[in-house]
Amino acid sequence: MARTEYPRPQFVRDGDWQSLNGTWQFSFDDDDRGRGAHWENGLPNNHTQINVPFVYQAPASGIDDQTVHDIVWYQRDLAITAPQAGQRALLHFGAVDYFADVFVNGQLVGHHEGGDSSFTFDITDALTADAQQVLTVRAEDRTYDETLPRGKQSWTGHAEAIWYTNSTGIWQPVWLEVVNAARLESVRLTPDLDHTSIGIAAELSDAAIGGSLKIAISFKGELVAEDTVRIVANHTVRSIDLVQQHIFRTSFHNDGWTWTPENPNLFDITFTVLAVDGQQTDTVASYFGLRKVSRENGMIFLNNRPCYQRLVLDQGYWPEGLLTAPTDEAFKKDIELAKAAGFNGCRKHQKVEDPRFLYWADKLGYLVWEEIASVPYFSENSVDRVIDAWQDTVRRDYNHPSIIMWVPFNESWGVDRIHYDTQVQHFSTAVYHLVHTLDDTRLVMTNDGWETTDGDVIGIHNYSHGDSAESAAYHHFKDTLSTTEKILDQSSANWANFANGYTYQGQPIVLSEFGGIGFDASRKDGWGYTRATSVDNYLSELTRVLDALQASECLWGYCYTQLTDVMQEVNGVLTKDREPKAPLEELHKRFVFPRFGRLNDTAADYRH
C-alpha cells in the first residue's frame, strides 16, 4: 500500500516529480548512537524496512510496534542525477513528528522542527553525477517532553481515556521535484466577494526577475480573466476583477459562482513564468473559491448570509495508519459519509491534516475549523513552538476555501493557568491577534470549550446531557442551552466560560463539543460519555440530545463528538472502519434541523 497521489493539490507544477512513499530502510536508535556512528552513510546491518509515510507504530508501516522509540532513522536511494544548469532539485516533506535532520549522500541538507508542518529543502548542491543518490532522515520525537505540541497523542506510551497511540517520524508524504531556477515559489489567493475579485500575492525566485508572470483564470472551463505582469521583484501583488460586466455583477449570487457547502464552486487559476525571451520556465495550476466568512448580530455568516454550523469532531485517525490516511480515497469517503449523515463540516481536532483532506473539503463543499496540536503545559518553549506552528499552518493552508475558522487552543491545553494568570492570558490574546495578522479573512476562536479570552466565536463544551429524558441532568442540560443568558451564566464543567477579566461581547455561540454517545454492541469495554444498547436506542439518544439544541434560542451551530470510533472510544457515528452505526438517512434527519437546513436569504429566516 503506497500513497501515490500528487501531494500538493493547490500548487500543481507542470514538471518532473516523483513520490518517495513506499519502502525505506529503517532503524531504531534508542541509545542515540546514530549521529556518532554516522548512520547517514549507512544504517546498521540489523535495520528493517518501513512503508513511508506510515509511522512505525501503525500497522500499515509494516512494523506495527507501539513501544516507545524516540529516535528513528530512515534511508533510501534516490533515482536522480544532478540537474542541468538552470534547474534545482527540491525535496518535500508533508510532516515529520517532531525534529528532522535530512541528509543527501551523507551531507546534512537541512534541519526542521515541527510535527505538523510541511517543509522543503533544496538538495541540488548535494547531488552527484551518479544515477543513484542516498537520502537519510533522522527523526526525533520526545515522548515525555511536555513542551512539544502533541495533540491527542499519549505521553504515557499507551492509549487510554481520550489519548491515542503516539506517532513518531515521517507521517505525511515525501516527494521530489526538479524545477527551473526561474519559477513561482508560492502564491497567496484572497477572494473578495463584495467586489467580485481575487487578490493575488505571488512570490518568485531571483532568477525569475526580469521576466513576466501570466495569470489565467477560468470557471467551469470558460476563461474569465487574464493578466500579465512584468516581474521586477520577488514579490508581486495583483487584484483581478472576476465579473467585468454590470449585468453579471448584479446577478452574481444567482449565477452560482460562489463557494458554499451546497454548491462548492471553484475557479481554476494557472500561473506561467516567462523568461525575457518569452520562453516558458514554470507553470503552476491552482484553484480558489469565491467566498466570505464574517460574523454579524451574533451569527456566523458565509457569503453575507447566515450559516448554521453542523459540525462533527474529526480526530483524523485510522486503524491501519493512525494519523495517516491509508489512501487518498479515505479522505473523500470520510467527508462524503459525514455529509450524508447531515453534517456540513468538521472541527478537525488537534492535528493539522494532510492537504489532500483539505482539497476534498474544497471540492465536495465541507466547512473546516482547523486546529494545531496543543502542548500539555504553558512554558517558554511551548510558546515558541505554538507560535511557529500557527505561522506554518496559516501559511500552508491559507488558500483553502473550506477553512472558515482557526482554533488556537482547546480546553485550556497549553494555557493551563489561563483563568487567573495574566501572562497566560496575554499569550492567548497574542495568538488570537497573530492569527488575525496572518489571515484576517476568517474567524478566529481563542480557547475553545471554556475560559475564553478574546475570540470571534464563543465555543462551549457540554456533555452533561444525562442518561434519560427524565433525568435532572438532561433538564438542566436543555435549560442551560435555552438562552444566551443561561448558557453564559451556567458553566457546564468545572471551569468558567470566560477567563477572569473577560466578558461576552456579542459573539456567535456554538456548542462546539457535546454528545459523545457510546455505541458498539460488540464491545463492553468501549468508552463514551453515555451508552446506547441498540440501534433504536442509539437513535433515540441522538434525538433526545439534539432536541435540546433545536430548542435553543442562542446557539449558532454545534460540533458533535464524534465522526468515528477511535481506539478505546466508541462514541463515533461511524465505526473505526467507517461503517455507519445507524442508517445514514436516519442520522441525517436528526442532525439537520429544519430551520437551519441551508443558507437562507435573510437572517430573519433563522430566528424564532
TrEMBL record:
Domain Glycosyl hydrolases family 2 sugar binding, chain residue ranges per copy: 18-136
GO molecular function: hydrolase activity
Gene3D superfamilies tied to this protein: Galactose-binding domain-like, Glycosidases
Keyword Cell membrane among UniProt keywords: no
Keywords recorded for this protein, A-Z: Hydrolase
UniProt domain Glycoside hydrolase family 2 immunoglobulin-like beta-sandwich: residue ranges: 183-291
InterPro entries attached to this UniProt entry: Beta-gal/glucu_dom_sf, Galactose-bd-like_sf, GH, GH2_Domain-Containing, Glyco_hydro_2_cat, Glyco_hydro_2_N, Ig-like_GH2
Domain (Glycoside hydrolase family 2 catalytic): residue spans on this chain: 329-591
Superkingdom in the source lineage: Bacteria
Pfam families xrefs: Glyco_hydro_2, Glyco_hydro_2_C, Glyco_hydro_2_N
Protein family per UniProt: Belongs to the glycosyl hydrolase 2 family.
Protein name: Glycoside hydrolase family 2 protein
